[in-house]
């Protein structure tokens, strides 16, 4: 039985749980409450010395880092595929590049926006808020351009798309609608949030459903 150590609000854990759901894999969810510093306890640090979720344990194999976990699941449980077919090197590279881009240049920025918007209004830093919003808007504009004539970022639904989902679906609740004046992003997001793996994911609030 696969075990997944995760904190439900974590976007990287959500990414892994979408992959598991897409592949129809059963697993035991072990919740690690970061607010109670459970990720710093010795038992957890034996699984991941960096003290971060998610961590996946499959029999005698222990893996941390959401991208590495997704790669492992793709290798070990290849059906249905969440990377373009072997032999499609350019598309596989494109999927991996987009996944990395989401993890490094989109998810953290939305996290910063969440942090700023979570403060009382009088404590927010307007300059920082504007800077983060503009950074996210640039990514959304880039996505809209790259999705022209495409249903998904790497031809088929893949880890490239999955990596964006956890933070895309909360943007509207943060006062930034990713679909405004971005028809390609709008259609892409609607296609994704119709998937059962995303729609029913515990800990993920799909804020755009009211607009579908």
Mean pLDDT: 93
How many structural domains?
A: 2
**Helix count?**
10
The Cα radius of gyration reads 17 Å
Strand content: 5-15%
By secondary-structure content and strand pairing, the structural class works out as alpha+beta
Helix content bin: 40-55%
CATH class of the largest domain: Mainly Alpha
At CATH level 3, the topology of the largest domain is Glutathione S-transferase Yfyf (Class Pi), Chain A, domain 2
Helix and strand element order:
EHEHEEHHHHHHHH
Low-confidence stretches: 207-212
Architecture of the largest domain in CATH? Up-down Bundle
| Ends distance | 36 Å
Number of strands: 4
Describe this structure in words.
By secondary structure, the chain is α+β, with helices and mostly antiparallel strands. The chain has two domains: 75 residues, Glutaredoxin (3-Layer(aba) Sandwich); 118 residues, Glutathione S-transferase Yfyf (Class Pi), Chain A, domain 2 (Up-down Bundle). Helices cover 47% and strands 8% of the residues. It has ten helices and four strands; from the N terminus they run E-H-E-H-E-E-H-H-H-H-H-H-H-H. It has a four-stranded mixed beta sheet, with helices on one face. Helix 1 packs parallel to helix 3 and helix 5 packs antiparallel against helix 6. The longest helix has 21 residues. The chain is globular. The C terminus is likely disordered.
List keywords for this structure.
disordered C terminus, four-stranded mixed β-sheet, Glutathione S-transferase Yfyf (Class Pi), Chain A, domain 2, 8% strand, 2 domains, single chain, Glutaredoxin, 212 residues, globular, alpha+beta
């Amino acid at each position: 039985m696969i075990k997944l150590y995760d904190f439900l609000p974590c976007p990287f854990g959500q990414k892994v749980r979408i992959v598991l759901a897409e592949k129809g894999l059963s697993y035991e969810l072990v919740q690690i409450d970061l607010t109670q510093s459970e990720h710093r306890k010795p038992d957890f640090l034996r699984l991941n010395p960096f003290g971060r979720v998610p961590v996946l344990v499959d029999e005698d194999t222990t893996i941390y880092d959401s991208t590495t976990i997704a790669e492992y699941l793709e290798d070990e449980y290849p059906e249905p595929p969440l990377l373009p077919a072997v032999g499609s090197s350019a598309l596989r590279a494109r999927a991996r590049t987009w996944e990395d881009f989401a993890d490094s240049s989109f998810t953290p920025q939305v996290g910063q926006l969440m942090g700023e918007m979570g403060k009382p209004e009088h404590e927010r830093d307007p300059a920082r808020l504007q800077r983060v919003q503009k950074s996210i808007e640039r990514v959304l504009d880039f996505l809209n351009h790259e999705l022209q004539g495409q249903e998904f970022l790497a031809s088929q639904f893949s880890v490239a798309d999955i990596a964006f989902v956890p933070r895309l679906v909360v943007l509207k609740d943060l006062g930034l609608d990713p679909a405004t004046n971005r028809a390609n992003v709008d259609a892409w997001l609607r296609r994704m949030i119709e998937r059962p793996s995303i729609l029913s994911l515990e800990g993920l609030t799909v804020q755009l459903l009211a607009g579908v």
